[in-house]
Amino acid sequence: MDARVSELFGSGNGHSSGSGGVSSGKPGNGYGVAPKKASAKSKKAKARLSRNFKPSNNTPYLPPEAEEGNIEYKLKLVNPTQYRFEHLATQMKWRLQEGRGEAVYQIGVEDNGMLVGLSEEEMRASLKTLHRLAEKVGADIAILREREVDYDSDVPRKIAEVLIRKVPDDQQFLDLRVAVLGNVDSGKSTLLGVLTQGELDNGRGRARLNLFRHLHEIQTGRTSSISFEILGFNSKGEVVNYSESRTAEEICESASKMITFIDLAGHHKYLKTTIFGLTSYCPDFAMLVVSANTGIAGTTREHLGLAMALKVPIFIVISKVDLCTRATVERTVRQLERVLKQPGCNKVPMVVSSTDDAVTAAQQFAQSPSITPIFTLSSVSGESLDLLKVFFNIIPPLSNSKEQEELMQQLTEFQVDEIYTVPEVGTVVGGTLYSGICREGDHLVVGPTDSGQFHQLTVGSIQRNRSACRVLRAGQAATLALGNFDRSLLRKGMVMVSPEMDPTICWMFEAEIVLLFHAKTFHKGFQVTVHIGNVRQTATVEAVYGKEELRTGEKAVVLFKFIKHPEYLKVGAKVLFREGVTKGIGLVTKLLPIAQYQPS
């Protein structure tokens, strides 16, 4: 593709993150654009091309418009008839549904992706029509960027990119989870404090104090536990955070998109907590924070490797640029680019230096997992902080509405990650709803216990992001109150499932693994800590099939046996194991349920 196009809009805008979208509601019945219309339009376009356009090699193009997904091309929307207006509104609803409440409209672009542009007057009229359409479907619009295009005409012509966001009905905000990784002292908690509190740091860590959960964290300045912070965006794309003394409930009420940050520990001592946060909380994206003055140090490479092993899309933030010279910052950027381009990573680094870059980065990042945006900012001076906010505002969800619907139709399965006792409420569990729907008053079973049993319980109230919630849908994180249920029966790694489900409980399982790094050899009888989703337990290697022992970089199918208690697992789940410097990843290939090898 032409260099001018990538300058103009970045190459991938035509295909949205939901390219596997809804095929059943095909246009022609669902929202009224018959395939004929597209062909008629392209014929007209071709006729116009042949008439007054000499095809040159540098004609700017976007990829042709995709039927599915949340990106729509419109040449112009000037004074539509009532019938056409209704049809356009239906189309907008479809695009919003595809993007789970967000859609991007490219105005002044033909369906085949040619950037024609509009005159000032036509653009004003088109945006006015778009505003009316958005009002009709209950959404708000925000212009992301406008550009002049070099089309063969004397009048300057513009194209515009517009974000349309649906005002949430009954708290159905779009929720994205971002895990925050990076070496100790790289400024992770401070950056989150600045983003969520709306106040800059004083250079001595004032911004991060509200994020700490324990006294020793405040004293040492090191995060050792997993904390959650929220940043909201309203339907106009404005930031909604704790500034102006808002409470969490007020943020949830006024936000139509929520970014939940999972603040993880950077210190090597707390690596197991970091891995648990990455495997059990299912983050959509990972943000790797690197300090500009120290560069890639300590656990930075390890965290990058973990995110890539778990296939979490990653972007990078270089913090503390106010402390060092421009040359030092550039050296850190080059160092990162070198690491990202290595054969093991195969990433395409993209340094973000303007609002335009941030918009392109957000759209490209969701479409292609190999693109890695790099931001350089300061939590003290606030430099380039706005670019990160623009990026968060525009970044689309990874799963489209169809995948979400399919998960919601399955039986309920809730993963228990945290357990609390709250005065006057009783036992409370925190975690993620993996599939199905959970409502107040639902009867579920929780387990497995040490003997592989499940206990019955009833869900009391539900809270999401510290505000009450009636219904919990698949993929959402929440806390559930269980009333006077005995806390000693619960532990991290359990699941709460609907009674109809027949969960497979196992002591032993087979996994196909790759040994990433090991000082000696890996053989039968070796003990490792295994992470699978929210399960974290020591397991013994019972057998290595086809080989006596494993060395670094080798693959094998291994039989593991848990030491303490049986666990609920699924075939195909990602496995991550570690022991000292030994690390490996793989997939669960076979479960050996309890009944097969142990009298019940």
TrEMBL record:
Residues 1-65 are annotated as: Disordered. Residues 173-401 form the Tr-type G domain. It comes from the Eukaryota. CDD domains: GTPBP1_like (cd04165), GTPBP_II (cd03694), GTPBP_III (cd03708). Pfam families: GTP_EFTU, GTP_EFTU_D2. Coiled coil: none annotated. Keywords: GTP-binding, Nucleotide-binding. SUPFAM superfamilies: EF-Tu/eEF-1alpha/eIF2-gamma C-terminal domain (SSF50465), P-loop containing nucleoside triphosphate hydrolases (SSF52540), Translation proteins (SSF50447). The keyword Protease does not apply. InterPro entries: EF-Tu_GTPase (IPR050055), EFTu-like_2 (IPR004161), GTPBP1-like (IPR035531), P-loop_NTPase (IPR027417), T_Tr_GTP-bd_dom (IPR000795), Transl_B-barrel_sf (IPR009000), Transl_elong_EF1A/Init_IF2_C (IPR009001). Residues 38-51 have a biased composition (Basic residues). Gene3D superfamilies: P-loop containing nucleotide triphosphate hydrolases (3.40.50.300), Translation factors (2.40.30.10). GO terms for molecular function: GTP binding; GTPase activity; translation elongation factor activity. Residues 11-31 have a biased composition (Gly residues). Belongs to the TRAFAC class translation factor GTPase superfamily. Classic translation factor GTPase family. EF-Tu/EF-1A subfamily. This is Tr-type G domain-containing protein.
